[in-house]
Amino acid sequence: MKRTSRFLFLVLGLVLLAGCATTTVGPGWRDVPATVWVARKADYSLELPDGWLVQSLKGSEGSEMMAATLEGPLLQRIVVIRRENEHAFEAIEKGALPDMLPQDLAERYIAETKSQFELDVVDVFSNAPASIDGVDGFRLHLGAMVGELRYQMIAYGVSTADGFYEISYVAPTLHYFERDREQFEASARSFRFKPMDE
pLDDT category, 34, cuts 50, 70, 90? Predict the structure, then answer.
């Protein structure tokens, strides 16, 4: 059986979470009472775009995930995942360390994406250092064909003593990616490692 891919999981839209294989938002998604999403267990917060719906899950090996969408997870989605450092890149059986260079983290992330999704080609449009709430990490802009659709992804990643954090945005290149991109970038800029109300 093929391994479930992080990129497949993100790109194909959390179909099981949405409860259907259409572009409508399904069961399990809920309105955010305020635009600030606080993940108490994962110890972070960020501002979500107005009107987006949210869902949170606990994954394997202590990972925690939040996903947000406006019109359905096949059309656009913001995802935040926290993983234990030792399980940051499970498909390539490598971890992350708080003192790793951003370019090394980014290379592992790209390798993880290719391995989990079993892709021959992942387009890397940009790979640059980036700071998330003052912590040095990376910013990647990736692309891949999934079936007949081309998707693009922006991913930020940082490793701290509390784990590896990934903040990503995925949408089809056609129409949705550029339309909602700045809303994601605003959310990424608002990310804080301590809840904003504490």
Answer: low
